[in-house]
Amino acid sequence: MASFPSLLESIDDLSLEQIEVLVSRSQHFKNNPQLSPFNTTPKPIIATSFLENSTRTKHSFAVAIRRLGGLYLDFNAETSSLKKGESLEETFLTLFYQGVNLCVFRSSVSNQLAQFKDAPPIKLVNGGDGVNEHPSQALLDLFTLLELSPDLEGKTISIIGDNIHSRVAHSLMKLLPQYGMKIILSGPKEFLPDASTLPPNVELSTNRDETVKRSDFIYLLRIQKERHADSNNSDDHYLETNGVSLDLLKKLNKLVPVLHPGPANIGVELDQALIKSSLYKGYLQVENSIPMRMAIIEAMLLNNDSNIGRINGEKF
């Protein structure tokens, strides 16, 4: 695992071989839930630092850390020296020299960790940055898709909803085509990116029904009102026009797996009947978040990178 990056900011930071190692280790951890690889002294310390609210990502990393046998530190940035004007780099260096081995960081600012690509002050996992990327979510989604269908070559997944503001959609667009998948981004026109920015194997559609008919998998996204300039837009009729209900899937004869990164807004992008049906795989994604994040942490802690925490090229 020596070649794994010390800063996982983007899917682009991983080779296909590294991604396949993570999938394999995730399956190993899922098959062996009592395994604690880090029964060492001292135990590794892994921190989470979330400048945006989170339930699934933060808590699944916390569970993954404990299952690995590490020590978990919840670093509360809201009460830290960041509020006194300390730079992000200085904060990370402080954590490093306090003995923290890795930090999972979430921010509302896109690309905030890119500044550390050449010299990470601490080993870092991007837990979601603005509207940029969410690599660990995309990786656990891949793991889930492979459990549902071991051969993804030629399959079509439709990502339906607020694509332009979705960091996980941006990561999935980079990840899933590497497995031969075709992606349809669907939703109202204002929720879709410019077609000229799309990578190969990704297309746009504003026709929900036609999108669903072409889908082998459906991936639903919530409307991210906190990222909209006009947060008062009504979503009263969104389910009927752009959401997905169980009745719709039955009517279109497309009883396919439905994924959702959460949190799901019942009555908006999906209905109660769908989320309670066997088609809904959101809870499988939650379950799979633990082994995948265990695999990511393990790979990064064991990469033998001795250049972390350097100041002006030197260790303190």
UniProtKB/TrEMBL annotation:
Pfam families: OTCace (PF00185), OTCace_N (PF02729). The keyword Transferase applies. Residues 10-147 form the Aspartate/ornithine carbamoyltransferase carbamoyl-P binding domain. Residues 153-299 form the Aspartate/ornithine carbamoyltransferase Asp/Orn-binding domain. Keywords: Transferase. Coiled coil: none annotated. It comes from the Bacteria. PROSITE patterns: CARBAMOYLTRANSFERASE. InterPro entries: Asp/Orn_carbamoyltranf_P-bd (IPR006132), Asp/Orn_carbamoylTrfase (IPR006130), Asp/Orn_carbamoylTrfase_sf (IPR036901), Asp_carbamoyltransf_Asp/Orn-bd (IPR006131). The keyword Transferase applies. Belongs to the aspartate/ornithine carbamoyltransferase superfamily. This is Aspartate carbamoyltransferase.
